[in-house]
Amino acid sequence: MTGITYVVVHPGFRAVKVGFTMTDSRRLEELGRCGWEPYRNLVVATQELARQIEQAALFEIRFRRYVPRYLTSAEMRTAGWTETASLGLIAAREVWDVVCEQASLIQLGPAVERAPDGRRRNGGTPPVRRAGQTLPYSKLARTQARLEQTAEKKD
């Protein structure tokens, strides 16, 4: 199931919030009823990936840019108050830039695991080779392979 990492703003509180949800969730509607307005959404392959991007963005905002939490649980009245920041300290555009930067680092980094369905990172399924799809090996290559195989047997 695909996930969404989102950035929303609340003009009344002068707050910005980063979060994650699933595509079939009503979380963004719930936030909208509480006065939050959508700024941008990033749709990614899985919910876990969306959460990982959200957590990396929050780490960047809190511990590298030193922007503290802004709203309290009483002010927000819904879950997610710990993910808010003051628009006076960081603009929604900057939060979105952090989300995009962290998403690219996570998705393009060398430590990224294989896709959950086993596909390679080329966006498709692994190729299947069938007889006749490759050119026949040259005589030189066959001779070299035969020599290497017989050399291994002697050792």
Quick rundown:
With 155 residues, the chain is an alpha+beta fold. The protein has a domain at 3-108. It is built from 5 helices and 4 strands, in the order ββαβααβαα.
Structural account:
This protein is α+β, with helices and mostly antiparallel strands and 155 residues long. It has a domain at 3-108. Helices cover 40% and strands 17% of the residues. It contains 5 helices and 4 strands. The protein has helices at 27-33, 47-64, 73-76, 92-108, 139-154; strands at 3-10, 15-22, 37-44, 84-86. It has a 4-stranded antiparallel β-sheet with strand order 3-1-2-4, with helices on both faces. A hairpin with a 4-residue loop joins strand 1 and strand 2 (15-22). The radius of gyration is 25 Å and the shape is elongated. The termini are far apart. The model has no long low-confidence stretch (mean pLDDT 81).
The percent of residues in helical segments reads 40-55%
> What is the number of helices?
5
Largest sheet: 4 strands, antiparallel
| Strand content range | 15-25%
Average pLDDT reading = 81
Q: Which residue ranges are poorly predicted, with pLDDT under 50 across at least 5 consecutive positions?
A: none
The oligomerization state is single chain
Order of helical and strand elements: EEHEHHEHH
Termini separation: 53 Å
Rg from Cα = 25 Å
In which order are the strands of the major sheet placed? 3-1-2-4
Number of DSSP strand runs: 4
Which descriptor suits the 3D outline? elongated
Specify the structural class. Answer: alpha+beta
